[in-house]
Specification:
The chain has helices at residues 2-32, 40-69, 74-99, 101-109, 122-190, 194-214, 222-237, 265-274, 311-330; strands at 220-221, 244-249, 258-259, 282-291, 294-302, 335-341, 346-354. The model is unreliable at 306-316 (pLDDT under 50). It contains 9 helices and 7 strands; from the N terminus they run ααααααβαββαββαββ. Strands 2-4-5-7-6 form a 5-stranded mixed β-sheet, with helices on one face. It has a two-stranded antiparallel ribbon with strand order 1-3. Strand 4 (282-291) and strand 5 (294-302) form a beta hairpin. With 356 residues, it is an alpha+beta fold. Helix content is 65%, strand content 13%. The longest helix is centred in the middle third of the chain and has 69 residues, at 122-190. Helix 7 (222-237) runs parallel beside helix 8 (265-274). It folds into 2 domains: 2-155, no CATH class; 192-354, 2-Layer Sandwich (Heat Shock Protein 90).
Length: 356
């Protein structure tokens, strides 16, 4: 609470210190540096000018800029400030005439010389007008920067909300496709080996718990994600024939890190959807390693075009498109994805993610 109160009062303190510095340097130290004793009327004028500039600053800050400048009434904003500048200078001229400032300053700087009235020096009026515009310019700059920062913060929050909504939508698309494919696999197993089907159901229930609880989070532990992938591979292995050779290189232990859940599965799932055939020899290679903060996933599989027209093949394709989009949203500039198809009907994926 105390830290929050301090942060809230920082802008006020900055304004107080800023005006104290300006008032001391411009309206006190600068005249004193000449070494001439000024009349009391001069210091009253200095205080009067300083008070007016503060009023001008905050009138522009709180009223003119929001009501006219940010409302795109730029012409009116400029006209009001121009009229204000002439009014400001006119008030100072009236004050000088009322206090006979010219004669008082002459006596202060030339006490031995006879005072002879002279035409008013326009240099001081122009200088005062420039000081007026400096006050307006400073307040305009500060409010503009603050508005830009506020707009940027809102834009960032909206972008975050949009990204989170899109990620939730993408995850919702991936998960049903995965379970659709996996249930089809278990259904096929029930016609071959009931005991294997039961084991597969147990693995699937463990995987479902992962999906239900971990995918609700933005990140999960890398070890949990790898355990999930291992369960999936073991589940798929149960239905493979001897014509399919698996080359799996996933470490039993890996340095812990955080990763977006269900991010790696679609690439591995794709291997089994497109890389196996009941008539032809096939091979699936999957490797995963972590070097420093970089996670590297590599897959290679054969391509059997017939699977592309099946519902499973279509689902897998959607999953890959969505996962690519998730990578762009979650790891912008921190990932590298290469997907290549070779002339000998092989499909390779190389994914590198900086998990730091």
């Amino acid at each position: 609470m105390q830290d929050s109160a301090i942060k809230k009062n920082i802008p006020i303190l900055i304004h107080i210190l800023g005006w104290s510095l300006v008032g001391t340097v411009v309206f006190v130290l600068s005249p004193l540096s000449i070494g001439v004793e000024r009349p009391m009327e001069f210091w009253i004028k200095q205080g009067f000018m300083f008070s007016m500039l503060i009023g001008i600053f905050y009138f522009n800050y709180f009223y003119l800029i929001p009501k006219f400048l940010f409302a795109n009434k730029i012409s009116m904003f400029l006209i009001i400030n121009l009229v204000g500048a002439f009014t400001y200078v006119g008030i100072l001229i009236v004050f000088d005439d009322y206090t006979n400032m010219q004669e008082l300053m002459h006596k202060a700087f030339r006490p031995d010389a006879t005072y002879v009235p002279k035409p008013r020096n326009l240099y001081w009026d122009v200088s005062n007008m420039l000081i007026f515009f400096m006050s307006v310019g400073f307040s305009t700059s500060i409010v503009t920067v603050q508005k830009w920062q506020a707009d940027e913060k809102v834009r960032f929050q909206l972008e975050q909300e949009r990204t989170n909504s899109e990620l939730s939508y993408l995850k919702a698309q991936i998960n049903p496709h995965f379970f659709f494919n996996t249930l089809n696999n278990i259904y096929a197993l029930t016609n071959i080996d009931v005991e294997k089907a039961k084991t597969a159901l147990l693995k699937l229930s463990r995987m479902m718990r992962y999906v239900l609880y971990e995918t609700e989070k933005n990140h999960t532990l890398l070890t949990k994600e790898l355990d999930f992938i291992k369960d999936y591979i073991e589940l798929m292995r149960m239905r493979l024939s001897s014509k399919v050779k698996l080359d799996i290189n996933i470490p039993e232990k890996i340095e812990e890190a955080e990763i977006a859940p269900m991010l790696l599965l679609p690439f591995i799932e794709n291997c089994f959807k497109h890389g196996i055939s009941s008539q032809h020899e096939s091979k699936i290679s999957i490797s995963l390693e972590k070097i420093g903060n970089e996670l590297i996933l590599g897959t290679q599989n054969s391509i059997f075009r017939s699977t592309e027209n099946t519902p499973e093949g279509e689902a897998s394709g959607i999953g890959l498109v969505n996962t690519t989009r998730r990578l762009d949203l979650l790891y912008p500039g921190n990932h590298e994805l290469k997907i290549e198809g070779t002339d000998d009907n092989h499909y390779t994926v190389l994914l590198k993610i900086n998990l730091k």
